[in-house]
Design goal:
- By secondary structure, the chain is an alpha/beta fold.
- It has a domain of 207 residues: Spore Coat Polysaccharide Biosynthesis Protein SpsA, Chain A, CATH 3.90.550.
- It is built from twelve helices and eight strands.
- The chain has an eight-stranded mixed β-sheet with strand order 3-2-1-4-7-6-8-5, with helices on both faces.
- The chain starts with a helix and ends in a 14-residue tail after the last helix.
- The mean pLDDT is 91.
- It holds the Pfam family Glycos_transf_2.
- GO terms for molecular function: glycosyltransferase activity.
- Keywords: Glycosyltransferase, Membrane, Transferase, Transmembrane, Transmembrane helix.
C-alpha cells in the first residue's frame, strides 16, 4: 500500500513540479556542453507568409481583430491575410468584407474550425502560414519574431506565447493566468532543450510544405497539426516575443467547459500520436511528450485520487506521523479548493483559494473529458467559451 501511495505522490509531483526542475537542469547542462547558436532571418530576408483567422460569430471582436491584424509589421508584399467565417450567422462576414486587404472566405455551412482551416489552406501559396484566433490580439512585431526562425531548416513550426489578461478584479479564473505563465516557461525550456510539445491555437506558425490535414473529428486540431510536424523530425520553436493576448473566461463554468474539451482532445491525441511514445524514433521528444502532455492527460488525475485514498488506508492500517501529516496537507488543499468553489459561486474574490480550485477543476476536467470522449459525446465542432 505504501508503495502505491509513494508512486502516486511522486507522479503528481513530477508532472507539475519535478519535470520543470529536471528540464531546467538539462538546459543548464546543454548550455555548458552544447550552447545554441541561433540562426534567424534579417528583416529583408523574411519569407512570404499568410495569416489565417478562423472566426465563428465573432462580431463583438472581429473589427478590433482586423485593426490589430492590419497594424502588424511585416515587409510589404510578403504578407497575405485570410479570414474564414464559415457558419457565422451574425455580422462577422459583413464586417470582414469591408476590408479589401483581407481575403474573406465564407460558407453558410458550419463544419467546424478544422474544416474551415483546411479550406483556407487550399488557397495558400506562401512559404509560411500563421494561425491565430479571432478573439486574440497580437503585438505589432509578432509575425517578424515568428518567421525569423525559419532560417534554420530544422524548424518546422514556431509557437507564440499566450497571455491571459487579468483585470483588476481577480476572480476564479485568476488561476488561468498563473497556469499560462508556468506553461509559457515550460515551453521556453522545452524549446531550448529540443522542441515545444504542441502549439496553442491562439498563435503559431508552420511551413506550408509541412502542413498535413488532420481528420475532421480532431478535437485539438492545433496541437495535432504541430505535433504531426514534430513527428516528421522537425523542431517546434517557442518565441515569447510573439504573443497573443486574450481575456480570461467569463467565469469558472466557462473555463471548465473549455478544459473538458481539452481533456477529451488530450486523450484523443494520446491515442492518435502513439508513435511519439516510441523512444527509438526521437528519445528526447518522447521524454518531453510523455512528461509534459501524456501524464497530465492520463495517469496524473487518477494519481491524485489514488494518493488520497491510499493515504487513508495506510493511516487506518499502520498509522504513522508522516502519513497523518501528508493526509492533513492533502485535506487542507482540497478544503481550500472547496472554499474557492463556494466563494466563486458568491462572486467573492480571494485568489489564494481560487488557485487550488483551478488546479482541482483542471484535473477533474481531464477525467470528465476522457469519459466524454469514450462515450462519443465530444463534438469536434468548437464551442467557444464566453470571455470577459
Amino acid at each position: 500500500m505504501q508503495v502505491f501511495f509513494i508512486i502516486a505522490i511522486l507522479l503528481v509531483f513530477y508532472t507539475y513540479i519535478g519535470y520543470g526542475i529536471l528540464l531546467y537542469i538539462l538546459i543548464l547542462v546543454k548550455r555548458v556542453f552544447a550552447p545554441a547558436v541561433p540562426k534567424v532571418f534579417g528583416d529583408q530576408e523574411l519569407p512570404t507568409c499568410t495569416l489565417i483567422v478562423a472566426a465563428f460569430n465573432e462580431q463583438d471582436f472581429i473589427e478590433e481583430k482586423i485593426n490589430n491584424t492590419l497594424a502588424l509589421n511585416y515587409p510589404a508584399g510578403k504578407l497575405q491575410l485570410i479570414f474564414v467565417t464559415d457558419g457565422s450567422t451574425d455580422r462577422t462576414p459583413e464586417i470582414v468584407s469591408r476590408y479589401q486587404q483581407i481575403h474573406l472566405m465564407h460558407s453558410a455551412d458550419r463544419k467546424g474550425k478544422i474544416a474551415a482551416v483546411h479550406r483556407a489552406m487550399e488557397s495558400v501559396d506562401t512559404d509560411l502560414v500563421v494561425f491565430t484566433d479571432a478573439n486574440t490580439f497580437l503585438n505589432a512585431d509578432a509575425l517578424f519574431h515568428l518567421c525569423k526562425h525559419y532560417a534554420d531548416e530544422r524548424v518546422g513550426g514556431v509557437a507564440g506565447e499566450k497571455k491571459v489578461y487579468a483585470d483588476k478584479h481577480a476572480d476564479a479564473t485568476a488561476g488561468e493566468g498563473i497556469y499560462w505563465k508556468y506553461e509559457s516557461k515550460l515551453k521556453e525550456w522545452d524549446s531550448e532543450l529540443h522542441t515545444v510539445v504542441g502549439a496553442a491555437g491562439e498563435l503559431y506558425s508552420i511551413r506550408r510544405s509541412l502542413y498535413q490535414p488532420v481528420p475532421k473529428n480532431s478535437i485539438l486540431d492545433d496541437f495535432m497539426i504541430s505535433m504531426r510536424i514534430a513527428e516528421k523530425g522537425y523542431r517546434i520553436k517557442y518565441e515569447p516575443d510573439a504573443f497573443a493576448q486574450e481575456t480570461s473566461s467569463a467565469n469558472i463554468s466557462e473555463e471548465l467547459k473549455r478544459k473538458v474539451r481539452i481533456g477529451a482532445g488530450g486523450i484523443q491525441s494520446v491515442i492518435w500520436l502513439k508513435s511519439l511514445m516510441n523512444p527509438f524514433r526521437d528519445p528526447i521528444l518522447t521524454f518531453q511528450y510523455i512528461s509534459h502532455r501524456v501524464l497530465r492527460w492520463t495517469l496524473t488525475p487518477l494519481a491524485l485520487i489514488a494518493a488520497y485514498l491510499t493515504n487513508v488506508l495506510i493511516i487506518a492500517q499502520y498509522g504513522g506521523n508522516i502519513y497523518y501529516t501528508l493526509f492533513l496537507l492533502q485535506t487542507l488543499f482540497y478544503l481550500m479548493a472547496l472554499c474557492g468553489f463556494w466563494l466563486e459561486k458568491r462572486k467573492i474574490r480571494l485568489k489564494i483559494l481560487f488557485i487550488p480550485y483551478y488546479f482541482c477543476m483542471m484535473n477533474y476536467a481531464v477525467v470528465a473529458g476522457t469519459l466524454r470522449f469514450f462515450k462519443g459525446k465530444q463534438s469536434a465542432v468548437w464551442e467557444k467559451a464566453i470571455r470577459k
